Amino acid sequence: MARCPREFRCTKKGRAYGDRSVDDTDRDRPGLRPRTDAPGPVVAALMLGMGLAALDGTIVSTAVPQIVGDLGGLAVFSWLFSGYLLAVTVTLPVYGKLSDTFGRKPVLIAGVVLFLLGSLLCAAAWNMASLIAFRVVQGLGGGALQGTVQTIAADLYPLKERPKIQAKLSSVWAASSVAGPAAGGLLAGYADWRWIFLINLPVGLVALWLIVRHLKEPARTTPRPPARIDWAGALAIFATGALLLTALVQGGVAWPWLSAPSLGLLAGSAVLGAVTVLVERRAAEPIIPGWVWRRRTISAVNLALGALGLLMVAPTVFLPTYAQSVLGLGPIAAGFVLSAMTLSWPVSAALSNRVYGRIGFRRTAILGISGALLVLLAFPLLPFPGEPWQPALLMLLLGAALGLFQLPLIVGVQSTVPYEERGTTTASVLFCRQVGQSVGAALFGAVANGVLAARLGGGDLDTLARALDAPESLTAGAMDGLRRAVDAAVDYVFVGAAGAAALALLVLLTLAPRRFPVLEEGTRRED
After folding, report:
1. pLDDT tens digit string along 167-190?
2. Minimum mean pLDDT among 131-135, 219-223, 310-314, 418-422: which range?
3. Which residues of 368-387 are buried (b: 16+ CB within 10 A; e: fewer)?
């Protein structure tokens, strides 16, 4: 039998634990994995749940004109996205801890029910304020869906088989994110914008039935003391995250960065962050345990995937603007340019086990982020105005590189913790990625607006978009100047994204251990 790489030699209580290959793990040992009557239905439920969470992050975007026309509230409509993002992000660590304490199934069921309740309420909204409030309810359920689905996927499959299920979830996430705007536009244009939320109900009910019917929680091999929920810590984390993300999302949009609201929110989040640390240190069962940051592997993966969230803002937010404004493509064609990344990412992720099975998790991730760094640096070198196939090719290469980067880190870090710590670990990784996206949106938005202001003497992306939507009102020279300004702004954003990739590479080179301490299945870690 072939011996596995040294990185995959399992450890038990910090000591080497033999030379067993990855596929020799005791995958049927009692208490290790959720028992299922049929793995297929459970995987289908996970994919449906992941699709719901991803779709609702983007599906509202193209229906905003219809929603505002019906409900009003143009001044605050951005909170339809911000409210959902805030609720998902700040609840991730809470749900991760709850899934480790009470099990995955009840948390996932509660998340699906809460998400469907929020969807039903959104469809019944009577004004913009009520719709924003109900989107927050949706986000509270979406946080449970994102974190718990990823955790159950790791529970269901041994190390060698995890890339397959993670690649499926990645493909569902990517396809749903790209299809969301198109689906929202079709429903709003040919039916009614309320169907954007009502369509979640049959899909979610099918997922809920599959989970209740087929997913069985594992029997614990050792008794646990009565669970004590750290409600104070959960509230502190929620409040801290809400203030910080509100400052990042609304700063430079609803008010200037150096205005009283921005400075007040940032100062308040810093104070609450200090309070959260004190509360968590004193808690018997903290929501975010100290070991999440004390262990080099987990802290390195958290920081690296936080940088991934930062750099992903460039292609997902600014590339469609580039495709429409600089290349002159329509919304659907611009979506196809971005979708090239979603084609190569899951394929690369599915094949990544062939790479990290030979050279290890860390080296595979270094290979992937190095490739992503080169691709991001190549984007500013594209000619003006260029051809659509050129950015599409770069996105194809970027997706392939990031598939080699993200999945080995997620699979690797999940394999270094036992079952009872996996939910917390997975949630911390996703939380850092979400925070990275919020920081990236604020940071790169400020960069783009700064470049546009310098090139055009004022204005922002919204003003620019309105001008480009009515090209007949501009002279040929003015239109060319606008397009060149957008080209320059997006180039600077991609340079910033390359800086985020370089930061992730530096974290892997300096902080991540050379070999991830993979645990034998069923081992309980002792710190």
Report:
1. 777 777 767 766 676 677 677 677
2. 219-223
3. bbbbbbebbbbbeebeeeee
The answer to whether 348 and 404 have CB atoms below 8 angstroms apart is yes
The answer to whether 197 and 21 have CB atoms below 8 angstroms apart is no
Q: Which residue has the tokens 């499926």?
A: 168
Residue 368 in tokens: 């992937």
pLDDT at 520 (0 to 100): 64
Pair 136, 84: CB distance under 8 Å: yes
Report whether 500 contacts 310 (CB < 8 A). Answer: yes
Sequence-distant (≥ 6) Cβ neighbours of residue 186 within 8 angstroms = none
Instruction: Tell me how far apart the alpha carbons of residues 284 and 397 are, in angstroms, rounded to a whole number.
Output: 47
In the chain, domain spans: 36-217, 237-284, 289-527
DSSP at 72:
-
The pTM assigned to this predicted structure is: 0.76
- State the Cα–Cα distance between residues 384 and 486, nearest whole angstrom: 11
The tally of CA atoms less than 13 A away on the side-chain side of residue 11 is 15
261, two tokens: 């609201």
Return the CATH class of domain 36-217: mainly alpha
CATH 1.20.1250.20, applies to 289-527: yes
Task: Tell me what the pLDDT averaged over the chain comes to.
Answer: 78
